[in-house]
# Entry
Amino acid sequence: MTPALGPSRSQPATLNDVARLAGVSVATASKALNGRSQVRAETRQRVVEAAERLSFRPNQLARGLLAGRSGTVGLLTSDLEGRFSIPILMGAEDAFGAGEVAVLLCDARGDAIREQHHVRALLGRRVDGLIVVGSRTDPRPSLGRELPVPVVYAYAPSEDPADLSLVPDNVDAGRIAVGHLLACGRTRIAHITGDPAYLAARERAQGAGAALAEAGLEPVGEPRFGDWSEGWGRAATALLLDRRVEIDAVLCGSDQIARGVMDVLRERGLRVPEDVAVMGFDNWQVLTAASRPPLTSVDMNLEQVGRAAAHALSAAIGGVRRSGVETVRCRVVIRGSTAPLS
# Structure
């Protein structure tokens, strides 16, 4: 009776089956399927044809171990419930998914001790690299230079210039926001923003001020810093109007602030955007779409930040490492709350 050359239909083919059908050793079959140069072209072709006949799919982990890799990466966040970290994680996972890389997700919940525990656990699982996602854009402590795998920081940059960090360009975001308002013919632009302890608030104000200066315009007073809330937007706008300050646009440091600004403008009989244009930041869909009118906002391109971090980590795993802070450009999403003056 002739022995079977392949596995039964109920079981998937193995590397042993491929090697037997091709008439080579398991080691040679493995080298052929992994593109090693030590295998002759005709032998490689024979192995590939055998694999195709058996519908053999190499085990990703086993194939990675042959190259000294596990085919997994760790994504470590401090704010899994946050609306900023989730789009970054989605972008990174999408980028890794295209290359069949498994992603292990851990949430440190802002706790440094928990973060170190997760790092040790991920390294124990032999991840090929780590992406560390912050909850705000302020610099954070580095995980250190002694880790055995490359690390890329996303959203919150590392304090160590030797690390690579991918962050939204908040300074440029302030510039393009004012640029949009100027293109709409607005020249009396007030800026109401959030907590000055946040680097994002300061950088957005810096970019907005620079854009006004380049246009030869003065801002309507200094940037008004406060809370990231609708309540602060209402209070700051009421103060502006009570002082009889002439404005034709308000740039807000967040969509929440913008909602409060629009409420008070409406209560005071001012139309948006006919009398006063209003812009927000973050492009938080639950707020922008429900605003009256829908809110123009600066999108931080957070999914792109995640994708860029994933590509950078893949390059680092392959031996091409970069360092420093790299920025990802933001974009203006135009809706009904801004329009050219008639």
